């Protein structure tokens, strides 16, 4: 049995399926995603390029709105309001990080919930908690899809999540609670992290800390999901010491090629779901 | 040292302090809370009476809007919209349960977030998750206040919550995650519930199951918060076998007189916070 959960492969399958759905729209207008970028952050440029390319591959219209580094908060708000009321736009995402003079919370709050392709708005997150959403933050959405794809049981299973960010740890915890898992959320203050992790059926590391998860954190029956996206010694890597952990566990996602590709696929799926909500 | 956390006493302290704040408003209008009741549920009548009395005690105007059991969804929506736009009303709560022909989610969603005294709306819950709210579901709000009152440390502590409801377990988990606790949320499918609980520093039972938490669930250093509000053999009781657990643990809330009085005090505090947001 192959232990490695091939997120790249599954993301491509999802993209192909989405592409077919969009082709079948026939004469109707195509879904459209707008990405807002402020300034010219190097990493952002790369992420945005990947997102636009992914849109193109499945037939979603991707458009970049790039604003100057010194745009005023009030002007940015005005621009987003124009995009909110544009009926040809289904999804709007604000590429983070924003310059320090911009109030991030106000900006992400102002994106219309009906266009919240990133799933970061309070109303989307509240509905995620209430199990009443079909839009989810893209990374947790991708993780749950990977677990379902591999038919990994969640009901009654002990899931340990390392990390409590607004875009991964917390929404993911709520989603897995709603799926009847027993969920433990750890953070940098957690005592005996190693011992807590070692007892998990599913361990999800979203700590952003290279080599955090070693062989001492895992067991033979465990599924390990590595959400880390770190650079160490010039190399892209996750949170898990992959080679040594691979030998022990049942399933593991690699970095790259695990959670990463799923995140973009789920962003596209959110956009399509927002499109369908609008068209129905 | 007294082991029993006297929620009744602390709630009265909070109410006295709130009463003083409201008296100091002087000429300004007083805060106002409207309770919507559909039909004539026996338990609801009792809860509403308590809430109205609590309002009166602190100087909040409490008003009951009672509608017939067979009110139509559309008519109820219209009534709530009228209350939403009434500038003299600060808080609106919909007393649950609603009759089965009413769509509860639509009704609670329609209450304006700026008047969401119960803290049940998606946007409030999303902001609770994001740690950006000053309104919280009243029961979790009361629990956190009790822990703070007793100066019980949360940072890095192992908190176990039994129960994952929308009004207690899930919002409470998010609030304690934001306070840097290591939080485990259990449900009826959890394996080895007893063992998981036994290792907690703080155990919070919101299962609604009398006598669930026995001496085998606890340890000497533990704080036990009993959120149960059950009737067994005609007697009001919590989830915890109080007498036997009391002997072992460090702190415990009684039922009645623990979490219950705090819930109403926090509903009043939410109403006052909504009032202040409007007046400022």
TrEMBL record, chains A, B:
Domain Tetrahydrofolate dehydrogenase/cyclohydrolase catalytic, first and last residues per copy: 5-118
Protein's recorded name: Bifunctional protein FolD
Domain Tetrahydrofolate dehydrogenase/cyclohydrolase NAD(P)-binding positions: 137-278
InterPro entries in the cross-refs: Aminoacid_DH-like_N_sf, NAD(P)-bd_dom_sf, THF_DH/CycHdrlase, THF_DH/CycHdrlase_cat_dom, THF_DH/CycHdrlase_CS, THF_DH/CycHdrlase_NAD-bd_dom
UniProt GO BP: L-histidine biosynthetic process; methionine biosynthetic process; purine nucleotide biosynthetic process; tetrahydrofolate interconversion
Chain's role: Catalyzes the oxidation of 5,10-methylenetetrahydrofolate to 5,10-methenyltetrahydrofolate and then the hydrolysis of 5,10-methenyltetrahydrofolate to 10-formyltetrahydrofolate.
Keyword terms, alphabetized: Amino-acid biosynthesis, Histidine biosynthesis, Hydrolase, Methionine biosynthesis, Multifunctional enzyme, NADP, One-carbon metabolism, Oxidoreductase, Purine biosynthesis
Quaternary structure (record): Homodimer.
Residues at which NADP(+) binds: 163-165, 229
Tagged with keyword Plastid: no
Family, similarity comment: Belongs to the tetrahydrofolate dehydrogenase/cyclohydrolase family.
Pathway(s) the chain acts in: One-carbon metabolism; tetrahydrofolate interconversion
Annotated gene: folD
Any single Gene Ontology cellular-component annotation: cytosol
Coiled coil: none
E.C. no: 1.5.1.5, 3.5.4.9
Keyword Acyltransferase recorded: no
Catalytic activity field: (6R)-5,10-methenyltetrahydrofolate + H2O = (6R)-10-formyltetrahydrofolate + H(+); (6R)-5,10-methylene-5,6,7,8-tetrahydrofolate + NADP(+) = (6R)-5,10-methenyltetrahydrofolate + NADPH
Gene Ontology molecular-function annotations: methenyltetrahydrofolate cyclohydrolase activity; methylenetetrahydrofolate dehydrogenase (NADP+) activity
